[in-house]
Amino acid sequence: MTPYSIGFSSQLNEYIIPETEIEGTLPSWLSGTLIRTAPARFEVGDNSYNHWFDGLCMLHKFSFQGDTVSYANKFLDSGTYRANMQKGRIVYGEFGTDPCRDLFQKATTFVMGFPVTDNAGVNVGEIGGELVSVTETPIPVKIDPETLEAEGQFKYEDKLGGQITPPHPHYSEDGTLFSFVTELGPTSYYHVYRQEKNSAERKVIASIKVKEPSYMHSLGMTENYVIVTAFPLVTQALKFRFTLKAFIEKYTWEPDRETIIYLIDKHTGEVKTYATEAFFAFHHVNAFEEDGKVIFDLLAYKNAQVIYDLYLEKLRSGDLEIVAGHLWRFELELSKGSVTRKVISESWMELPQINYGRVNGKPYQFMYSAGSTTPSAFLDVIHKADVTTGQVWTWIEEGCHPAEPIFIEKPGATAEDEGVLLSIVLDTRRQCSFLLVLDAQTLEEKARARVPHPINFGFHGTFLPN
Questions:
Q1: Residues 299 and 323 sit within 8 Å (Cβ to Cβ)
Q2: CA end-to-end span of the chain, whole Å?
Q3: Interatomic CA distance for residues 332 and 337, integer angstroms
Q4: Fewest Cβ atoms nearer than 10 Å: which of 4, 165, 314, 363?
C-alpha cells in the first residue's frame, strides 16, 4: 500500500458541511458551485470492483458564497447503485469488472451483450437543458445541483442506436452539443450528431461504417469540424455478446495498425480520413483551424498500457510505470490530405482543461492539467503549459495529489489565463482533502478549503456560476 492508496479506498460517508475551514483569501469575485465526480465505493457485499473507473459514483459539491465555502457529497442514486444495494452484490458490469458467471446471467444485465450501466461517474455537464452526470454508456443521469439528488435517467427523443459514447461532448457558442455514439452490430458505425441546447433529439451529421470499432474517450471540435480519433484499440460486436470479459478486456491493442482520424464537416456531413502511426489518448485538449489546416492537441501515449496501469491492485501497490501522457499536436492539411505530428511538451500530463468558454475550437495559448513528476508518481503536480512555446509551469506540494484543475475566468478578464484554477487535492500527510484555489496566471495559491475526510481520486466536473 502507498500513502495515496486511501484515494482508492471506499469512502461511504455522506456529509453536509455549511462552512469549510479556509486558509488564505478567496477571490471576492468567485461565486458559484463546483460539482465533480469520483468513484467512492469499490466493494458491494463480497464482490469488488477491479478498475479505478469502476467504483460507484459519488458527487462532490463545493459552493462559493462571499468568504465561505460549503461542501456536500452524495452517492449518485443511479439504477446501477440501487440494484447493487438491493442485491448486495455487483449486478452490472463496468469498465474493468464483469460480474457475470455465465452467458445466461449476462443476458439479464446486458442488452444483446452490451453494457447498460448508468453508474455515471465520469463527468458532469448539460444535455438538453438538464444538468447530468455521464459515463461511457449513452444513459445520462439527471441531477439536482442544489441537493445532488438523482432525478432519473435523461431520455433521448430519437431512435439513434449505439451503446458507447465519449463522456466529453463539445458545445458551440449557441449551446449546441456535438458528440458521437458507437453502434456495435453486424455492421458497426460511429454516428456523429448534434443536439440543440434544449432539445432531447440527437440529429445525425454523419455515420461512419467501421469493421472493428475503437475505444475512444473524447473527441475534438473546431468551428466547422468534428474530429474523431480512432486508435488501434479495437473490438468486434461478437466479443460483447459471447465472451465473459469486462468491457475494456474485449478490446485488443493492435500496434501494427494505424490511428485513423476522421474529420467530419459539421454543416455538410462530409467525412475526410487521415492515417497516422499507432498511439493512444484519453483526452483531446483543443482544436482549431488555421491557414488551411485543422490543428488539434491531445495528451498522447505510445500505446494503451496506461489503461492496465489503472487497475486498483496496481494503483494501491504503487507499482506504476506511467499514468500520464505527453502533449502532442497534429496538423491536418485540408487540401493535401496529409497529417503531421509534433511533441509540444514531454512533461507527464493528464486530465487537461482550457478556458473553454473563450478559446474552445479557436487558436489558444494555455492548457492546464494534473500531472506526474516521474513515471512512477501518481498525479502529484498541477501543470500550466504554453502550447505555443512548450513552456511548462508547475504547482507541487509534498504529500499532495491534485485532481483535474478546472479553469474559472474572472469577470471582465481580457487575458486568456486571467482567472483561477480549482482542484481537489488529497493531502496524505493529514489523511484528508482540500479544494485548492490557484491564480491561473502565476500558479500562486490564493486559498484552500479543507474538509475533514479524504475525497477519492476522481475524474471530471463542472463549475456553475451563480
A1: no
A2: 41
A3: 7
A4: 363
Share of the chain above pLDDT 70, in %: 97
Residue type, 92: Y
Note the pTM of the prediction, 2 decimals: 0.96
Strand partners for 35: 61, 462
Tell whether the model's pLDDT for residue 102 goes beyond 50.
no
Beta pairing, strands 188-195 & 203-210: antiparallel
Summary mean pLDDT of the chain: 95
Judged by average pLDDT, the poorest of 97-106, 196-205, 307-316 is: 97-106
The answer, yes or no, to whether residue 160 has pLDDT greater than 70, is yes
| pLDDT band, very low/low/confident/very high, at 319 (cuts 50, 70, 90) | confident
- CATH fold for domain 3-465: Methylamine Dehydrogenase; Chain H (2.130.10)
pLDDT given for residue 324 in this prediction: 79
146 vs 99, more confident:
146
Q: What is the rounded distance in angstroms from the CA atom of residue 286 to the CA atom of residue 356?
A: 9
Q: How far is CA 154 from CA 126, 197, 459, 460, in A?
A: 11, 14, 21, 19
Is the distance from CB of 433 to CB of 453 less than 8 angstroms? yes
> pLDDT tens digits, residue range 259-272?
999 999 999 999 99
CA 351 from centroid of its chain's CA atoms: 7
